[in-house]
């Protein structure tokens, strides 16, 4: 899994659908593709946006609640999310959507207060990879998995990648040099 997703050019994820029955081109409700509201108060102009836009469309979408999908998303440098109502783009530089095609106009703190973009970027270069592991493992433990016996296997690609960047040995959910960093429960 580590090499498949880490080295893919772009990952396509059917993020907004609970199963494969609708396919990648499922029926979308175009009315829900919204334009940001513009408001003028006196001489000042404001744009009102839904900052929950990314959370509801990607983070809490059906596919991203599944533990097996987590390493695909974390390891891929680029992902196109086919959402229920629109497409979303995620890479190590920025996130965008059909509503905000240039870039989302707000910071997305999604992994327990960590900015997902900086976390993905730091996975490539950071010497303090065990801190990144702790954040990822904490978030990962909240995800759904059908068989608990698969929990370590579903995270093994990320563990292998971090092991190679941190020069730390990963053994059955623990780091040999730091056994209490990000234990899986």
**Series of H and E elements:** HEEEHHEEEEEHHHEE
Strand percentage lies at 15-25%
Mean pLDDT: 77
Question: What number of structural domains do the residues give?
Answer: 1
Helix content: 25-40%
Number of strands: 10
**Largest pleated sheet:** 4 strands, mixed
Rounded to the nearest angstrom, the radius of gyration is: 18 Å
What is the rounded distance between the termini?
22 Å
Structural class: alpha+beta
Parts with pLDDT < 50 across at least 5 consecutive residues? none
Coarse morphology: globular
> From the structure provided, what is the oligomeric state, counting identical versus distinct chains?
single chain
- What is the count of helical runs? 6
Q: Strand order of the main beta sheet, please?
A: 1-4-5-6
Summary, kept brief:
The chain is of the alpha+beta class.
Give structural notes.
It is a single chain. The chain is built from six helices and ten strands, in the order H-E-E-E-H-H-E-E-E-E-E-H-H-H-E-E. The chain has helices at 2-6, 53-59, 67-75, 116-125, 129-140, 156-166; strands spanning 11-13, 37-41, 44-48, 78-82, 87-91, 95-97, 109-111, 114-115, 170-171, 174-175. The strands form four sheets. It has a four-stranded mixed beta sheet, covered by helices on one side. The chain is globular, with a radius of gyration of 18 Å. The protein starts with a helix and ends in a 10-residue tail after the last strand. The mean pLDDT is 77.
List the helices and strands and how they pair.
Layout: H1 2-6, E1 11-13, E2 37-41, E3 44-48, H2 53-59, H3 67-75, E4 78-82, E5 87-91, E6 95-97, E7 109-111, E8 114-115, H4 116-125, H5 129-140, H6 156-166, E9 170-171, E10 174-175
């Amino acid at each position: 899994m580590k090499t498949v997703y880490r080295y893919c050019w772009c990952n396509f994820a059917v993020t907004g659908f609970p199963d494969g029955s609708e396919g990648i081109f499922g029926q979308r409700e175009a009315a829900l593709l919204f334009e940001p509201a513009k408001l003028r108060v006196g001489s000042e102009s404001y744009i009102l946006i839904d900052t929950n836009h990314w959370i509801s469309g990607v983070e809490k979408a059906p596919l991203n609640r599944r533990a097996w999908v987590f390493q695909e998303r974390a390891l891929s440098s680029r992902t196109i999310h086919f959402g229920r109502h629109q497409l979303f783009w995620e890479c190590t530089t920025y996130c965008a959507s059909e509503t905000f095609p240039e870039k989302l106009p707000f910071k997305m703190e999604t992994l327990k207060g960590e900015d997902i973009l900086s976390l993905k970027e730091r996975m490539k270069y950071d010497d303090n990879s065990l801190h990144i592991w702790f954040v990822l493992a904490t978030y990962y433990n909240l995800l759904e998995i059908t068989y608990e016996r698969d929990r370590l296997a579903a995270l093994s690609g990320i563990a292998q990648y971090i092991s190679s960047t941190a020069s730390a040995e990963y053994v059955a959910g623990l780091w040999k040099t730091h056994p209490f960093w990000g234990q899986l429960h």
